[in-house]
């Protein structure tokens, strides 16, 4: 259920923030003291004073919502709509009349609060890559990389604005990872697969040659499915889960067309986070969003 009541006014959005932020009790953001008293208000927000260090603060202090030009109701609506409905920032600019630049900056700050994925592989692991046509948005024009022409190596690379994105599906832990990379070569593959518990990690790949060196490495058991020979599924040996996950990731990226390659990490972290809240009821999902950025 869409949590429309939260987006009705800044006061109701402030109310939700207050609930989530102090769910385990009030605490001073500076000295962590719990000896805190209510101390008037700052606009729609409750204000507090710490009896230990004397500092005053309000519900937004020290969060990514502090000092925003955009009202909290609009900001929460924007985050919610972006994550649940895959709305582009450009579209939100039109819907709720906020500046593209300010909203974009808040979305970036939001993404930065999300942790980088920790790969701790159990296996068997499917690994595959896809390539994104990146734009120049939010970045200086980079003439040098354009003039370099087609690369002879791999299927696409970062310098040509076709950055590779690796998709890993760990069938052992049921985790999925979507990770952009500078290049799709042996060292990138090794870096991704490096942390695994078992002595030998079973890895399913397609026939791309960046995966070939795994054959001769005893810490990996590589099984390849060769697409060009029309062989797609050979029992357990396939990368189909990667492929369907990659198509979800592509669909997620598509309304944000033209995002530059150095912003890919931001959008792919949001994509990973989105999966965690996708099936939750609206108000619960919104609370999870707020809790994540606090
Ligand atoms: Zn204090």
UniProtKB/TrEMBL annotation:
**Positions of the ISXO2-like transposase domain:** 120-276
A Pfam match is Zn_ribbon_IS1595
Q: Region (Disordered): which ranges?
A: 138-158
Query: Mind telling me which InterPro entries this protein's record contains?
Result: Tnp_ISXO2-like, Transposase_27_IS1, Transposase_Zn_ribbon
Where composition is biased (Basic and acidic residues), the residues are 138-147
NCBIfam families xrefs: transpos_IS1595 (NF033547)
Q: What is this protein called?
A: ISXO2-like transposase domain-containing protein
Instruction: Please report the organism this UniProt entry assigns to the protein.
Output: Natronobacterium gregoryi (strain ATCC 43098 / DSM 3393 / CCM 3738 / CIP 104747 / IAM 13177 / JCM 8860 / NBRC 102187 / NCIMB 2189 / SP2)
